[in-house]
Known about the structure:
By secondary structure, chain A is mostly helical. Chain A has helices at residues 9-34, 50-62, 70-79, 82-87, 89-121, 131-137, 139-162, 164-168, 172-196, 209-226, 235-245. Chain B is of the alpha/beta class. Chain B folds into three domains: 15-123, Orthogonal Bundle (Fumarate Reductase Iron-sulfur Protein, Chain B, domain 2), CATH 1.10.1060.10; 127-275, 3-Layer(aba) Sandwich (Rossmann fold), CATH 3.40.50.1860; 284-431, 3-Layer(aba) Sandwich (Rossmann fold). Chain B is built from 20 helices and seven strands. In chain B, helix 10 (178-190) crosses helix 19 and helix 17 packs across helix 18 (375-389). Mean pLDDT of chain B is 92; it is low at 395-399. Classes of the chains: A mainly alpha (250), B alpha/beta (432). The interface between A and B is large, with 51 and 47 residues.
Amino acid sequence: xxxxxxxxxxxxxxxxxxxxxxxxxxxxxxxxxxxxxxxxxxxxxxxxxxxxxxxxxxxxxxxxxxxxxxxxxxxxxxxxxxxxxxxxxxxxxxxxxxxxxxxxxxxxxxxxxxxxxxxxxxxxxxxxxxxxxxxxxxxxxxxxxxxxxxxxxxxxxxxxxxxxxxxxxxxxxxxxxxxxxxxxxxxxxxxxxxxxxxxxxxxxxxxxxxxxxxxxxxxxxxxxxxxxxxxxxxxxxxxxxxxxxxxxxx
Amino acid sequence: xxxxxxxxxxxxxxxxxxxxxxxxxxxxxxxxxxxxxxxxxxxxxxxxxxxxxxxxxxxxxxxxxxxxxxxxxxxxxxxxxxxxxxxxxxxxxxxxxxxxxxxxxxxxxxxxxxxxxxxxxxxxxxxxxxxxxxxxxxxxxxxxxxxxxxxxxxxxxxxxxxxxxxxxxxxxxxxxxxxxxxxxxxxxxxxxxxxxxxxxxxxxxxxxxxxxxxxxxxxxxxxxxxxxxxxxxxxxxxxxxxxxxxxxxxxxxxxxxxxxxxxxxxxxxxxxxxxxxxxxxxxxxxxxxxxxxxxxxxxxxxxxxxxxxxxxxxxxxxxxxxxxxxxxxxxxxxxxxxxxxxxxxxxxxxxxxxxxxxxxxxxxxxxxxxxxxxxxxxxxxxxxxxxxxxxxxxxxxxxxxxxxxxxxxxxxxxxxxxxxxxxxxxxxxxxx
Lengths: 250, 432
């Protein structure tokens, strides 16, 4: 059975589960590490049970006092990233395009994966949700959000190349993060281009479409999922939690 | 081979704080604002984000995936000491947290890591290690006898036996910059606001211990908090008033945390009371600043930490003859004077370096008077002014302010002067 992009479904599933397992283990390790802290200021460190972090976070989010409501923080500071906009509209534009592009493509990929699995199991889906049909329907949104992501990545690269302060302060920790995103995005364009015979295919023969797609999927899963807890990507989870815990921050 | 143990532990850090360390996006916004980083010619080690990155590295080396699989990797003593020193080159002003895109509560984070380092044997810095001993033994950092707590009160000031307001003077106004205590008391009397004082029962708020990561040593801040809160509650007053931003911060944020409950009184800064009286038209002015330009420096402890920005401006803007102007970097984005976080005591040159920059902000708007509402800001901005203008002298309160130099003064002194009250302290009155 072939996957919608002609990748072997077995290969796809195995890679996906490896990526999910690596992600979960990394998150478990991080939460265990955070749980070595105490449950409140000035208290003794705890025993490292993962419940400690979850409990402390919830308690701090629910605590009354200084700060803004949960929903305000979630919408304005996490989704719309107001704190970045306040400091630098250019950096905000860069970050929001990466954020929106990344999140949308992630959700679209999940949707495709889900309908593939449902189809595999043998559950009948409405015509519009049939993998082939859905792939065509999502083609335009995929393109749009891929370009949005690409714009953000280009701004990030240009900043690091041409703004001396940013360039000098960039370390491997940042470069690996940006490099990973760039490779994922470019390989996505190329694999799609090969399959459709478009500009991004660069005239590469059709037969290379499956391995190109496979390469894109593998590194996407590794960088965008498995690698998150072990890298700077972790801020995608920790920063929103910090904003919620501190009620939007000072 | 014996199994290696982690080089650091998580003492004094909460689970959420450990998570916040992983939230840093390294955007670098904090570098644009940090007063210490700026005053020290921007060494990478003083950048807030670099401190977070280093602590993250220590955590990962000790408790990360690799440490789990192959054992912890050591952090050398030199590396740890260098990190500790860099961390103490911080005024804990909190501007890095204000501008942090991830909303990291940096003030609490620095203080928690400092406490961790003190327990580890790497902190505090310089003379800061004297604070616990002094505050425990004398209940003030100036080695004064508690019996002398009220010596600053000159004749003519009325202290009520019973009132609804207690004025918590603080150690600095009581012993070191007495003009602040004297002016506050005279203004309160003139406004006919009866107030009590704790006298010998007033203990140091212990701000310096919390800020420098020494709250656990002999439990001094907690014991002081319990003592002060109980003494204040025993008066039956509903309001405790502060003219010191440092004490105000401790009473507002640290006391409830240290004693585990909210005190049974309201905490008010004198600026709030004065602004209220101005709005009601209850203040009768008797002097004028004669069109002098005045600007306001927000103390970190009053503004950024407690959110009091507006009332000091209302007061200063209403001073007769005052031309109130704003400097660069005000309110939430205020530039620190450089005295906080134990820096004035531990690294005085750095403190003056930072305050000199603040003085230049005031010069840029042609300010004749730079006002604040914190004795530590007053002292350090005064030192910064002297550094910029090349003034020498030792007695801050008695130092001359020639007309061509900027006057650095506390709001309450200006208010007292313009209300026609004497700003002379007891010793000056006795000399006459």
